[in-house]
Specification:
With 251 residues, the chain is of the alpha+beta class. 49% of the residues lie in helices and 19% in strands. It has nine helices and eight strands. A four-stranded antiparallel beta sheet has the order 1-4-8-2. Strands 3, 5, 6 and 7 form a four-stranded antiparallel beta sheet that branches. Strand 6 and strand 7 form a beta hairpin. Helix 1 runs antiparallel to helix 2, helix 1 packs across helix 9 and helix 3 runs antiparallel to helix 4. The longest helix has 20 residues.
């Protein structure tokens, strides 16, 4: 199965982007070659750009507090595992505490590092980080992998409280989903929202279908068009029925 997630708010769109950046960063941090650590640094710069939004930290803290209150109300419910509930509440408390302790604007440490900012500025120029452009960075790329990893971890550290918050919110959002099996007739599917509230829509379909969903939604209707892509051609609507799993997620 391939899963496609579509955000229905700007906040969830931001969290999905951050989640994707952190996951790709994990991959490159685990490598040992200089070109891979270079990509890791570029990803840290991207996380910096997204995470330094003025309201992101406060949004996460408010959402964590809201979820904590909702979960606290479930204490004593015989259908809820007390141990599992306590574990989630501990994660929320730990994440909220780390966000609270992250004083100042997220990413200020990078902003104050003139050397890193000089590299970031050059990355906006195609081919702008050759050894003759940034000899000091060229020197860093020739340091032992352990030293590079130590530095990358230090530069990433200010953004880890944000990651913890994103991970918890997205985990709770996905767990909230109600799934159903649907069929797109001749590649087209529409469902009226009729008062349904959702923050994210997830579409899952078998890898055997040679098509991808194009999703659009507003407060009135959800439209999904499954399209096929032939080499060099414009996408066209699939000509067969497509079975898929549809999930509405809302906190």
């Amino acid at each position: 199965m391939i899963s496609y997630e579509y955000p229905l708010s700007e906040r969830i769109r931001t969290l999905l982007r951050l989640e994707d950046l952190y996951e790709r960063l994990d991959y490159f941090l685990a490598k040992r070659e200089a070109p891979e650590h270079h990509v890791a640094l570029l990803l840290i710069f991207e996380i910096y750009e997204v995470a330094s939004r003025a309201d992101l930290k406060s949004d996460l803290m408010q959402e964590l507090e809201r979820q904590k209150q909702s979960l606290e109300a479930l204490r004593g419910n015989p259908e809820i595992s007390e141990d599992a509930l306590a574990g989630v509440l501990r994660q929320i408390d730990h994440s909220a505490s780390r966000l609270y302790q992250a004083s100042g604007k997220i990413g200020q440490e990078l902003r104050d590092n003139e050397w890193l900012m000089s590299i970031k500025q050059r990355t906006n120029i195609p081919g702008g980080i050759c050894e003759f452009d940034l000899p000091a960075y060229h020197y860093w790329l020739h340091q032992p992998p352990e030293q590079q990893r130590h530095d990358l971890d230090a530069w990433l550290a200010p953004f880890m409280p944000i990651r913890d918050g994103v991970d918890i919110v997205m985990k709770l959002l996905r767990a909230s989903g109600k799934s159903s099996q649907q069929v797109a007739q001749q590649g087209m599917y529409q469902q009226m929202m009729t008062g349904r509230v959702a923050q994210m829509i997830r579409v899952r379909l078998a890898r055997s279908y040679p098509c991808v969903p194009e999703i659009s939604a507003n407060k009135y209707a959800l439209n999904i068009r499954f399209t096929t892509q032939e080499s060099g051609q414009r996408p066209k609507v699939a000509e067969t029925d497509v079975e898929f799993e549809l999930t509405f997620c809302n906190l």
